């Protein structure tokens, strides 16, 4: 996983980690559905089929979706729609959208889908799990499975002792949220979570995959990123292991190699995409044209962005045209 390439929103860390560890994701988040599935048979990601039913999905929101074909123990085929709602705030029409996707799958492919959602927001009261309407002669009640990552805050010990890779994913997500505006604390947790991968005795491939997720979501200011890698390089040397190479470091190191101005532009654009999703072309060009001091200020401010509106507000507040 060392290739250098621009990442689009559809290539988000959530999608990568779901593809790498899909059976473990189902076993961790939705054990009852997982129990229906014969994991000895291969599962298949139906990306083209999902694109056909999601072509008019809302622009600007951040979520990861996977449509997957699996097989039951009795030999029958099942389609699973896994939705990860990355946006850090609730959405009024979320349940309607889940129903719409389910209906489109059935309408286009004549396949009933098990619909499941992973909610990454911070609102403890937002728990949409059904879409319904009721008239005298027509009624509908569509229910779907959800897990709320915030609920794992009270199950931290359970996460620590779990060997499921999604325990690490949830820990990284929760600590990213909890360390907003606390960069030093985030650095400490980032180091701790990556060190934990080595202490679990994971294979090199798994360490790399989970490192990639942690590094992607737990963004640090540049100065702390330098400190982090100095400390982590020493840690690897002490363990006589060198799994994480400079070429894999998504943030500061890669930007620095491209030169001060160009590197800062590239770094800020990558971080913005991680935080708020795809940028309109005019906004992307505008960011590329910012002077270096404003790029650095934006690079610090974006650590607390959760939606593209935060970027627009920052640009307006700083009187940037």
TrEMBL record:
UniProt name for this protein: DUF4351 domain-containing protein
Entry keywords, A to Z: Plasmid
InterPro entries (UniProt xref): DUF4351 (IPR025587)
PANTHER family, per database record: SLL1691 PROTEIN
Species of the source: Halotia branconii CENA392
Domain DUF4351 positions: 257-315
């Amino acid at each position: 996983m060392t290739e250098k390439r621009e990442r689009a929103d559809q290539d988000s860390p959530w999608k990568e980690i779901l593809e790498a560890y899909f059976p473990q994701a189902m076993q961790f988040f939705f054990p009852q559905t997982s129990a229906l599935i014969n994991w000895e048979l291969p599962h298949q990601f139906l990306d083209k089929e999902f694109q056909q039913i999601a072509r008019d999905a809302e622009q600007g929101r951040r979520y990861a979706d996977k449509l997957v074909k699996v097989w039951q123990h009795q030999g029958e085929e099942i389609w699973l729609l896994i939705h990860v709602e990355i946006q850090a705030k609730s959405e009024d029409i979320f349940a309607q959208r889940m129903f719409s996707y389910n209906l489109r799958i059935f309408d286009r492919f004549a396949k009933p889908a098990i619909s499941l959602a992973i909610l990454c927001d911070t609102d403890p009261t937002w728990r949409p799990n059904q879409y319904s309407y009721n008239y005298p002669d027509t009624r509908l009640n569509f229910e779907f499975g959800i897990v709320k990552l915030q609920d794992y805050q009270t199950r931290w010990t359970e996460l620590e002792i779990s060997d499921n890779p999604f325990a690490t994913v949830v820990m990284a997500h929760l600590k990213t949220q909890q360390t907003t505006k606390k960069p030093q604390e985030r650095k400490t947790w980032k180091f701790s979570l990556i060190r934990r991968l080595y202490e679990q005795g994971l294979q090199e491939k798994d360490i790399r995959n989970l490192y990639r997720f942690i590094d992607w979501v737990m963004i640090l200011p540049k100065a702390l990123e330098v400190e982090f890698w100095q400390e982590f390089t020493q840690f690897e040397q002490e363990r006589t292991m060198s799994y994480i190479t400079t070429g894999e470091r998504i943030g500061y190191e890669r930007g620095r190699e491209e030169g001060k101005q160009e590197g800062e532009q590239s770094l800020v654009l990558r971080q913005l995409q991680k935080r708020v999703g795809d940028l309109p072309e005019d906004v992307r060009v505008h960011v590329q044209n910012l002077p270096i001091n404003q790029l650095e200020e934006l690079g610090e401010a974006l650590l607390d962005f959760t939606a593209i509106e935060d970027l627009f507000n920052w640009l307006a507040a700083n009187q940037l045209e």
